[in-house]
């Protein structure tokens, strides 16, 4: 796992000075603490910071072959198969990121279609003055671009482009409204006025500093028309093969790795699959628990599962004082903002795990592929039985806190719904909407930023084409049955790890942020209300009242969102570094 950045110039444009590249490397250092390297090429400059995972001694980038130079952030899980196909003698290193380069020599701009993995790749052809920017189909690894007068710049994080002075710290108000109502932003445009995402599955072709065209690769397989539905027995057999194949591929590493274990179905499934594979040393697992009254706690269940497979397990206890001390730094790592309070446990788990390992496997994607959310079951009911569309209400609807009610905050979700209309069922369409927006722009973004803040690589075995091929061919009856989502995954876990009790009621994993805010309601509400960015969008007296009533579910989420936005705006729009705990930071 690494950080990448660079610039390509239009003809006649002078290249940026080395100081700009140095600023990019400094802003990427947390993603690649093991060294920075540069390539100054005709009409292009590339920056790579490395977190060494595969081929520790010989895998430095940039990598070159013929007229091509490549830098990449990610892991190519079918690298062994690509090497066998091309011939090992053609490779100069043991780096898995050399495979995309050699595929490009053979297949040109279609090279990414041969990749299985998570990746953000920049590949520059000096002869054609052409840059290819590619991102994996699920959007596990991030990539951003900004155009300027003399060309185009790209980086793993928008904060890199801001720090290097390649993009202004100005916001798109429509994206801010979307953030407030959805807690994340959708589509190609980011919250920054001139910075855009390379979309999941895209390969963008840039010639002489300008974008010419885009290719797209879907994360979800094309279904064969009139294919007989899978029986439960066949589906279980295929799921077992797919999970074992994916977990084994995701364990490939030259450094220690472990697992975030929540006590839920997804991480328990990964633990079960990992325990069936041979390994030279004990598996390491980590679980978060919150020290707060009435907080959901599955730590004991997770610890029991870990002990059952002889894993070395740690419980990370998170208190309110820890959150207030570190929250400015936690929010600062979310430069592309997602106000998901799950960033809190993810950040603390990464901080702890990074002391012992460099790679973490995590269960993101299980709900989206196997149908775990209650909103899916609601989306497929008729309206007279309580059915309702997803993401239909915004966070601040009915609270009378904002000065102006956001009007178009649901446009991005509506566009995803239109694109998903061709799916074979309403259930699959609902899942496809989440795979297009919620998954890459909230869950995977959260995992990437919180782990990379600690120099830790995150891997998601459930988000793999081998697994998706099985999950997406399931009939609805094997996705949801009665009030149970993830039906087939639960059945698989019941067969292979009955101790996980996959059909028992789950407590869930909810951060008690509302209760913690309510404890500091008057003090914290006053500090948030006095921020200029909050006064611009909200009524201060209503903000203070909201924080004092934050013990409720809706009021707690809304107060958290304003707190997140106040801290985020201070760091990423005003450009001020965190300078203490949450109270000290907001007091300045």
Automatic annotation (TrEMBL):
UniProt keyword Cell cycle present: no
This protein's record includes keyword Amino-acid biosynthesis: yes
Glutamine amidotransferase type-2 domain mapped to chain residues: 2-209
Lineage: Bacteria, Pseudomonadati, Pseudomonadota, Alphaproteobacteria, Acetobacterales
Reactions listed under catalytic activity: L-aspartate + L-glutamine + ATP + H2O = L-asparagine + L-glutamate + AMP + diphosphate + H(+)
Top EC class of this enzyme: ligase
PROSITE patterns according to UniProt: GATASE_TYPE_2
Pfam families tied to this protein: Asn_synthase, GATase_7
Site positions for Important for beta-aspartyl-AMP intermediate formation: 364
CDD domains listed in its UniProt record: Asn_synthase_B_C, AsnB
Similarity comment: Belongs to the asparagine synthetase family.
Binding site for L-glutamine: 96
GO-annotated cellular components: cytosol
Assigned keywords, A-Z: Amino-acid biosynthesis, Asparagine biosynthesis, ATP-binding, Glutamine amidotransferase, Ligase, Nucleotide-binding
Pathway membership, UniProt: Amino-acid biosynthesis; L-asparagine biosynthesis; L-asparagine from L-aspartate (L-Gln route): step 1/1
GO MF annotation list: asparagine synthase (glutamine-hydrolyzing) activity; ATP binding
Active site: 2
EC number: 6.3.5.4
GO biological process: asparagine biosynthetic process
Binding site for ATP: 362-363
Record's protein name: asparagine synthase (glutamine-hydrolyzing)
């Amino acid at each position: 796992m690494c950080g990448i950045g660079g610039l390509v110039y239009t003809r006649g444009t002078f290249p940026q000075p080395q100081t700009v590249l140095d600023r990019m490397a400094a802003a990427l250092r947390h993603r690649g603490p093991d060294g920075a390297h540069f390539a100054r090429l005709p009409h292009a400059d590339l920056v790579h910071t490395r977190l060494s995972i595969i081929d520790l001694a010989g895998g430095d980038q940039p990598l070159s072959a013929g007229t091509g130079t490549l830098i990449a952030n990610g892991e190519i899980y079918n690298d062994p198969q690509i090497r066998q196909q091309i011939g090992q003698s053609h490779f100069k290193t043991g780096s898995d990121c050399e495979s995309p380069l050699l595929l490009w020599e053979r297949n040109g701009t279609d090279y990414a279609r041969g990749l299985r993995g998570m990746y953000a790749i920049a590949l520059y052809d000096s002869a054609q003055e052409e840059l290819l920017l590619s991102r994996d189909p699920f959007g596990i690894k991030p990539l951003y671009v900004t155009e300027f007068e003399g060309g185009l710049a790209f980086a793993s994080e928008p904060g890199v482009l801001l720090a290097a002075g390649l993009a202004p710290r100005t916001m798109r108000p429509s994206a801010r409204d979307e953030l407030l109502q959805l807690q994340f932003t959708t589509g190609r445009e980011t919250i920054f006025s001139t910075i855009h995402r390379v979309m999941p599955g895209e390969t963008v072709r840039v010639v002489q500093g300008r974008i010419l065209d885009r290719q797209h690769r879907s994360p979800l397989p094309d279904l064969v028309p009139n294919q007989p539905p899978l029986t439960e027995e066949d589906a279980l057999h295929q799921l077992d093969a797919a999970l074992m194949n994916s977990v084994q591929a995701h364990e490939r590493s030259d450094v220690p790795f472990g697992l975030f274990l929540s006590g839920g179905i997804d991480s328990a499934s990964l633990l079960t699959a990992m325990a069936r594979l041979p390994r030279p040393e004990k598996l390491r697992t980590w679980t978060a628990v919150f020290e707060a009254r009435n907080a959901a706690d599955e730590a004991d269940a997770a610890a029991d599962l870990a002990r059952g497979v002889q894993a070395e397990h740690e419980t990370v206890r998170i208190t309110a004082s820890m959150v207030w001390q570190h929250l400015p730094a936690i929010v600062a790592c979310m430069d592309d903002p997602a106000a998901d309070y799950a960033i809190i446990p993810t950040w603390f788990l990464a901080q702890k795990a990074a002391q012992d390992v460099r790679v973490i496997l995590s269960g993101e994607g299980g709900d989206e592929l196997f149908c775990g959310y209650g909103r899916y079951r609601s989306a497929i009911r008729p309206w007279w039985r309580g059915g309702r569309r997803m993401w239909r209400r915004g966070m601040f609807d009915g609270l009378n806190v904002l000065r102006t009610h956001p009007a178009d905050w649901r446009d991005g979700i509506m566009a995803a719904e239109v694109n998903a209309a061709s799916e074979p069922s309403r259930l699959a369409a609902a899942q496809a909407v989440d795979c297009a927006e919620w998954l890459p722009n909230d869950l995977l973004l959260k995992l990437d930023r919180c782990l990379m803040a600690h120099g830790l690589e995150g891997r998601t075995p459930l988000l793999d084409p081998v697994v998706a091929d099985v999950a997406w061919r399931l009939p609805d009856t094997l996705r949801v049955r009665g009030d149970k989502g993830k039906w087939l995954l639960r059945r698989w876990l019941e067969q292979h790890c009955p101790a996980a009790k996959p059909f028992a009621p789950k407590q869930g994993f909810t951060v008690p942020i509302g209760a913690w805010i309510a404890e500091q309601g008057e003090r914290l509400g006053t500090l948030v209300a006095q921020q200029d960015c909050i006064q611009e969008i909200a009524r201060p007296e209503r903000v203070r009242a909201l924080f004092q009533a934050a013990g409720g579910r809706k009021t707690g989420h809304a107060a958290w969102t304003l707190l997140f936005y106040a801290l985020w705006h201070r760091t990423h729009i005003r450009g001020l570094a965190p300078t203490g705990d949450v109270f000290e930071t907001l007091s300045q």
